[in-house]
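Much of what follows relies on a compact textual record of a protein's fold. A record is reproduced here so that you can trace the correspondence yourselves:

. . .
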Amino acid sequence: MTSPASPADLSAWGAPQQPRGAALLTDPLLNKGTAFTERERDVLGLRGLLPPRVFTLDEQVQRSLAAVHRKPDSLEKYIYLTNLQNRNEVLFYRLVMDNIEEMVPLIYTPTVGQACLEYGAIYRRPRGLFLSLRDRGHLADILSQWPHQVRLIVVTDGERILGLGDLGALGMGIPVGKLSLYTACAGVHPSYTLPITLDVGTDNQELLEGPAYIGLRRKRARGEEYDSFIEELVQAVSMVFPKALLQWEDFGNTNAFRLLTQYRSRLLSFNDDIQGTAAVALAGVIAGLRLTGGTLRDQRLLFLGAGEAGTGIADLYVEAARSEGLNEAEARARCWFVDSKGLVVKAREADLAHHKLPYAHDHPFIATLDEAVRTLKPTALIGVSGMPQTFTQPIVEQMAAFNPRPMVFALSNPTSKAECTAEQAYQWSDGRAIFASGSPFAEVEFKGRRHVPGQGNNIYIFPGVGLGALAAESREVTDAMFLAAARTLAGMVAQGDLELGRVYPALTQIREVSLRIATAVAEEAHAKGLAQAARPDDLMADIRARMFRPVYREYA
């Protein structure tokens, strides 16, 4: 992957000539705001357009951080940060990277969920592309008008935004937020990124009737109309941006699995909800084994929720367990699912979606999660249901009754959808639970001991996977790459993390986490003959050198 990593090289932006004056100040990739020096203001025609005092980047960061702190709530902070990103990307990313633990929950989960719900009201300036059914036949032309050479696309059709459901065109906050994390956490240059929302309608009647809805006022397209639109998108991306990686994001279950299966070998792509969630959850289980003892092949996983995330985790677990000596049937037998109708078993095969069938076991039907926990006695309980407070006190107490250290992963996003809170998990298990969640929870003091819950967020996985695939110019993103990412992440959990009950590294290490995962993914691509780029002598050093650093270029 070639990268315009040096902000000092204007040609990296593809600009035929250097913009000046007001035009320069409106380009977020080039604008330095009050950091333009006296000489730069003279040479670039900026006199009078800026306040007279010259600030350093460090001073701008502190001023921006203070502005964030003055905002009354998380949504207002999100709006401020979005506006900052739209006017000065270097400053935005420096602020985020210097304050990563504080900023990530503001630019992504949990705040992005509320931002999507309010997207029509807080919309200020376009970022990315809205491609609607009205644009059929012209998608390649529209992509060709994008001003930068794109290497990374995150696309959603808005049908399953986090745990919030069908938000249609309001889902744009998701690809925008994910790509911000690619840059902040893995150093993918912002000029390489393109957020896309596919507006194919919405089945959310409240949105269709609302005066502020920004999308098409029609029911969601299905069948041939939908499929031909997706096919046109894939063909357009392949033609206009042939080296781009496309990440499918927040598609509904009816489309997510089949689109991944249909296009993963035709277009460099992956589905983060299926594969990224799988890797981060599996990493938590692997790290948790250092506290519980035992092996991966000996675990029994019980999932609440049998959609993209749950079956994705199970599929990756199967791959990992097979590498430890189980055959596929034995590995699948270690994974059990409770969906909205009860335990997934063979007797229900007629009413089960295709992706659930491999986990429909020959077992008497069980109607409730509580009974399933009592009967199956899982070592890990994994919530991916989007149903809050479903891990009740009796359920967690049962988990603790037959597990000295029960794994309780409440992974549904945003925070309001979590199956239980960290405090509940620790209190109901007498402080013995190994807890992880999708959105952040504060640390808990229980019986004189400090517990720091791990955030099993995909942020630990997808930025590094994407970076590694791009660096190797891989032809495909494989399941083996996500397994390598999971093992790499689990290996970065320090003993100090485990002593606090945390099965993920601190978020402050995210750039190093992404670098190591990218290296592991690129190694897998080279080892399996999927890499189209030549392998450098020092793969990690080569990838590190390509990572974007938020520093200002010098103009004069």
Notes: The radius of gyration is 24 Å.
